[in-house]
Amino acid sequence: MTAHVLSDTGTLTGRSLRHILRSPDTIITTAVTPVALMLLFVYVLGGAINTGSDESYINYMLPGILLITIASGIAYTAYRLFLDMQGGIFERFQSMPIPRPSVLWAHVLTSLVANLASIVIVTGVALIMGFRTGASVADWLAVVGILILFTLALTWIAVIAGLSAKTIDGASAFSYPLIFLPFISSAFVPTDSMPGPVAWFAENQPVTSIVNALRALFAQQPVGNDMWIALAWCVGMLVAAYAAATAIYRKKVS
Amino acid sequence: MTTQTREPAIRVQAITKSYKDLHVLRGVDLDVAAGSIFALLGSNGAGKTTLVRILSTLLKANTGTATVHGFDVSSAPGDVRKSISLTGQFAAVDEVLTGRENLVLVAKLRHLKNPGAIADDMLARFSLADAGNRRAATYSGGMRRRLDIAMSLVGNPPVVFLDEPTSGLDPQARIEVWQTVKQLAKDGTTILLTTQYLDEAEQLADRIAILHKGTIIQNGTLAELKQLLPSAKVEYVEKQPTLEDVFLALVGDTSDTADEAAMSAGEESR
Description:
The complex is a heterodimer. By secondary structure, chain A is mostly helical.
């Protein structure tokens, strides 16, 4: 049975990717909010924000916007998983000789593809708005690698929400705090402009280190410690969420 | 239809299942002969679905053993899953996909060769060929149930569980499902179906068991069950057509796919 893990995961991923292709609005709506925020911050608020760097404001804020994109995109994963479980299709899969993890991994891989598509759209808009980077191919690979890790970590959190939600609203509502997390970080303003306790929170939450690492990569500056802290956060969240999600799943499918 | 020589396709021994203080199954025993149709009859909440979920490896029993197609459901669930298919109470189709894509999906997951050809074959067999390239969301209830059953039969599993296969169906769709079930049994498939419709059990089943409050209170052929009551008395009553007779006579007895297709095409265009 284990021999079929890959092929079954592929088949099921194909199924949920088809869902996305049939409702491309899920990718568009994922990109709309970050793009609107980007317009708001660059053309309305940005002029009054002193980032203390020579970078253009769009260069400064794009990393945070990308994280917001991912945080809003993963809500659809919880939503789709919840719908699958509500309908009979989930039980059909469970009663078939399909390796159990394949069903979840299919949703996770679909989330990855959908979020990368949204990120490409948002980055495209940012380029039109004047975002520029001299990042090398290696820098870009590092950026994409961090974004993939971040997406996987948040997606497994979404899997927890999708598995344990009681209502369809509950399945997607969990992502709101995640979307707001970047606002209390270094994503839009330097943390040293915040009052003490807030600045402390901002300095010690995952988004700040990830944003700082991405920003340094885009600006071709030394990433320093932020890279390792960012990776530790991503991998830590990923492992914890994955463990929790699979434990809930095992309990659920007995 | 029953074969005495083979061991039973389904064997349930002293299965219990409780949720805290709620004892859903209180020791169920039954055997289903290979190639036969076995009806599990019971009112809502009798535990029919719970038993089917245990036999199809979706749920674990508290105590007792069950084997399906020779495999133990708790120690060899993977082998059981290879031998069965489950059609639950709610049509387990993917509404975003077309009927054909649904069938191809199942064929691929069962690792069959030529999933496309299998899907086309099933569409033809279940009078869905014209609707094959429409999304399942546009199907009528009867079409959706037919697709559901077709998906369950991809790969010809030797044991089929049908949990209230005709609930919510109109009379014609119901008769179509009955014909399908009879044909399956004729081809050697073992079928365990649950129902709360007495006439369904009467129409289809080789054996009927009555599940009541978590135990089997009777188990036998229709003739045996009928003997439990005093012998038939002869009464003369005027034979009035039933409403079902009238309905079927008016709308035509057999499958009405064209009508259904037209109806759901109407839904689609709305």
